[in-house]
User: Fold DUF306 domain-containing protein from Lunatimonas lonarensis.
Amino acid sequence: MKSLQSIPTFVFLCLFLFSACSSEPIQLSDYDWKVTQLAGSNAPKAKLESLTLEFKEGQEIGGFAGCNEFRGGATYNQQQIKFSTLYTNNQSCEDAALERIYLKNLESSVNYIYNANKLVMQDQSGNILVELEKL
Assistant:
């Protein structure tokens, strides 16, 4: 009889634990990110890892794109993301092509996946455009 009384307690405890584990949306602004892969580029790893992305308050973003710092905006929910036009101060350098690819890929991103320490940006077809990891 005593074991029958503990069943509701057990069920309640299980429900409580499962609800506590529900996935909350990641706060992308909690981290700074560095690029690890970039579609359309065969740049060496060291060059890619110099590219950064930072989500700031108020839907603002910024980072380093290879030659220049960049800024702009981004709106996102749990899976979708939309970048505004991204602006730089247009200083030229030898990595200008890499910068153009990076900014174009960010602006073309419509979905993202966050998993452990990685952030993956995808286009409408699910193609990976940019992979980043936490700094």
User: Anything to note?
Assistant: The first strand starts at residue 32 and ends at 38. Strands lie at 32-38, 52-55, 60-64, 69-76, 81-83, 87-88, 111-115, 118-122, 128-134. The chain has one domain: 27-134. Residues 8-23 have pLDDT under 50 and may be disordered.
